[in-house]
Design a protein that fits this description.
Phosphatidylinositol Phosphate Kinase Iibeta, Chain: A, domain 2, eight-stranded antiparallel beta sheet, five-stranded mixed beta sheet, PInositol-4-P-5-kinase_N, globular, Phosphatidylinositol Phosphate Kinase II Beta, 7 helices, alpha+beta, repeat
């Protein structure tokens, strides 16, 4: 059962404040802290995969933008609604020449994801520039527990995750209900999906991937990242406290301070979480968690008040809507 406050084992030294994520079309200001991941430059093992991905995204977005937007039909959600494009090195009538080897590109339900990007206020030009611009993608240091690899755009607005065939099938299967849910509840905290694609190099292995919004894109530094499942079994990081950094993902038992919110905002957030969890349950999904990003505001709250709460909202923020306030929170589905 969710409550507005959790026990505080020990008084924290700093106060936490919300770190609202930047809008999809806005570029965050220059950061003064170290960016996560390693830039994929020439010689990197996934350099050509990145080039293929960028060529495919540029082609897919440009191709869809040339067509007028129309209402979605049932056929657009059909799992068989996917399109192959061949990319020979010399180029073709529809594809540009490139320095990589020949590959095939596949788009899954492109019209649906075009509507989804519009629904999430993602500008097509900004989307294409973030992935396909002059800046290379960054690969996170290690794959996730599932074996997937994660890539970030340089502006950190978008994240690309490699997935298995079964995971693509699951997302495409739930796409009609997912679209209906996020369209009805604009403040949904479920991961925002922007596209599903695959790359098949000539004579190589097919790589499937999902493009989604990056929760931790913010003008504020994210000092702590938590992956919360509401469980205590195995829910503690294997890192010592002194080894914990900005990029470390902590778990339920690592959370040692309270979050306190204004009652109206808390009720709105709690209700949206209930709706989102009900949706995931209806889709037969059990493995998901709540991601939380925390930004500490030093020297703002008097020391005498620090033990009472590490997440506060001032009277000036009472009128902030859930959509503006809660994008530091996200329900992440683990396929």
């Amino acid at each position: 059962k969710a409550t507005t406050e959790m026990p505080t084992p020990r008084p924290p030294r700093r106060t936490a404040a919300p770190a609202p994520a930047a809008a999809a079309t806005a570029t965050p200001p220059p950061q003064r802290w170290r960016r996560p991941g390693k830039t994929i430059s020439k010689g990197h093992r996934n350099y050509h995969l990145m080039l293929n991905l960028q060529l495919g995204i540029r082609h897919a977005v440009g191709k869809s933008a040339a067509k007028p937007m129309r209402e979605l039909s049932r056929a657009d959600f059909d799992p068989r609604e996917k399109f192959w494009t061949r990319f020979p090195p010399a180029g073709s009538k529809t594809t540009p020449p490139h320095s990589s080897s020949e590959f095939r590109w596949k788009d899954y339900c492109p019209m649906v994801f075009r509507h989804m990007r519009k629904l999430f206020a993602v500008d097509p030009a900004d989307y294409m520039l973030a992935i396909c611009g002059d800046d290379a993608l960054r690969e996170l240091s290690s794959p996730g527990k599932s074996g997937s690899f994660f890539y970030l755009t340089q502006d950190e607005r978008l994240m690309i995750k490699t997935v298995k065939k079964s995971e693509v099938k699951l997302l495409i299967r739930m796409l009609p209900s997912y679209h209906k849910h996020v369209k009805r509840y604009k403040n949904s905290l479920i991961t925002r999906f922007y596209g599903v694609h695959s790359v098949k190099p000539y004579g190589g292995q097919k790589v499937r991937f999902i493009v989604m919004g990056n929760l931790f894109c913010s003008e504020h530094r994210i000092h702590r990242r938590y992956d919360l499942k509401g469980s205590s079994y195995g829910r503690k990081s294997d890192r010592f406290e002194e080894e914990t950094g900005d990029a470390t993902t902590l778990k339920d038992l690592d959370l040692n301070f309270a979050f306190r919110m204004q009652r109206p905002l808390y009720k709105e957030l709690h209700e949206q979480l209930r709706r989102d969890c009900a949706f995931l349950e209806s889709e037969g999904i059990m493995d998901y968690s709540l991601l939380v990003g925390v930004h500490f505001c030093d020297d703002i709250v008097p020391a005498s008040k620090m033990a009472l709460s590490t997440f506060t909202t001032s009277p000036a923020t009472l009128n902030v809507s859930l959509s503006e306030k809660s994008r530091q929170l996200q329900l992440q589905v683990h396929f």
